[in-house]
Amino acid sequence: MGAGGRMSVAPPTKQQEVGVKGRVPCAKPPFTVGQIKKAIPPHCFRRSVLRSFSYVIYDLAIVTLLYLFASYMIPLIPSGHLRLVAWGVYWVMQGCFLTGVWVIAHECGHHAFSDYSWLDDTVGLILHSALLVPYFSWKYSHRRHHSNTGSLERDEVFVPKPKSQVAWFSKYLNNPPGRFLTLFVSLTLGWPLYLAFNVSGRKYERFACHYNPYGPIYNERERLQILVSDAGMLAVVWGLYRFAAIQGLSWVVCMYGVPLLIVNGFLVLITYLQHTHAALPHYDSSEWDWLRGALATVDRDYGVLNKVFHHITDTHVAHHLFSTMPHYHAIEATKAIKPILGEYYRFDGTPFYKAMWREARECVYVEPDDGSKDRGIFWYGNKF
Question: What's the pLDDT at 372?
Fold first, then answer.
């Protein structure tokens, strides 16, 4: 396994792998990125055009079959109640598999789809535009998230607020009705609000928007590609308008709109749970470094959806360490690096719907431990 595989770092215990108690170590790790990489079989870093496209074809084939089912089979169901159930099944399944399509487009943004950047960008632009995601805009902001994960000053998304900066009304929302309202708004409106208004994102000196090529998120070299992203989304919006004119607005909402809401909800939920956990530290500029920030994330278990989502859920630690690695090697890579990471690796097997509620209750703000010498290391809290 190379030098990294021979390091005397204890493997994670059962409690550390599945537990919610206990914190991930925040001291500088006794290993380097190079040592972690040596523990991973070299073939895990190889990208295959044919294999990558096989996942695109697989997902799109299922999406097409679900579309045909909803178009031709659901209208034939005589009972109104059964028809409503059938629509619900279609919406959930289509939303889940379209989330898988979204994940592949996300891989394209990381240059994990193939060895050809132009091919990655072409596939990513088409797939993300079809899901109303500005491909290049999000590609660049998301790369900056990977470059600054865990930094309170420079991370791009789901940046927690120190206790002193939390809104005055937050303490009134930390109860079951308030948490339900907060989660509902986040899962339904969170993604478009982030794209349009940078809600929950990094603070910039002026208004930040993923659709604005001249906004503070992007530099001069990226502005033309932001316009390309906008054009891709406008083309899809125009196509949806034409479909609505022919088939009716209700047809577009049922066939496309509701599944898209589910995609957006899963996207927000997956990202939220990957970076929000009482065991994970955040750092200010006095303590942050790239490796500790990359390790401040957690693998989750979504059951059968792990496969549907191409394992972005249960191999996220490895993804943050090596984002150009194809998703179809991530499980093998995760198994290889766990003995190296030891206690720095965090897996939480709590069902995602329970974890969502728990983190919304426990992870309201961040602050350093009382009396700690490490004032640049912040932990989640919820006591006002």
Answer: 78
